[in-house]
Amino acid sequence: MPRLPRVLVLALALAAAGCASSSRAGDYGGSRQADVITRDEVEAAGAGTAYDLVRSLRPMWLNTRPHSMQNPAGDVLKVYLNNTLLGSVDALRQIAAADVGSLRYYDVGRANYRFGQGHLNGAIQVIPEGRTDEPRP
Predict the structure, then answer these.
(1) Cβ pair 59, 45 in contact under 8 A
(2) Reduced to 3 states, what is the DSSP secondary structure of residue 63?
(3) CA 74 from chain center: how many Å?
(4) What is the Cα–Cα distance from 85 to 125, expressed in whole angstroms?
(5) What average pLDDT does range 63-90 have in this prediction?
(6) Quick check: pTM over 0.90?
(7) Strands, E, within 46-99: which ranges?
(8) Would you state the pLDDT for residue 17?
(9) Cβ-contact 87, 79 below 8 angstroms
(10) 44 exposed, middle or buried (CB, 10 Å; 0-12, 13-18, 19+)?
(11) pLDDT confidence of residue 80
(12) Cα separation of 44 and 61, whole Å?
């Protein structure tokens, strides 16, 4: 009888570990992160532009907040090449997918922290192919 509680504790621990790994924030069932598009995903997608990559792999990045009290100007999603502002999401249409090493989405808080105030719809950072450093979270 003393073995039953150990087995039960082990079973509960394994179940809890499985739930924790499958419900991690920013995870798509194990292999993809919600806030990053990796070079492997870029190569597999066969997209023409960086915009096509985002639209097909992480379309939720393109959802923007409408005009509101907090966002009176209807602030646009901003795009950065490394740490240089390129402009709005339309800038992604000018970047060939083959030139993309990775893409990272920053929500409002993280974008304001990383790039400064004024990112009410967040930001997308493009890291060119061949660049050795990954974008910092």
Answers:
(1) no
(2) coil
(3) 22
(4) 9
(5) 79
(6) no
(7) 78-81, 84-88
(8) 47
(9) yes
(10) exposed
(11) 97
(12) 19
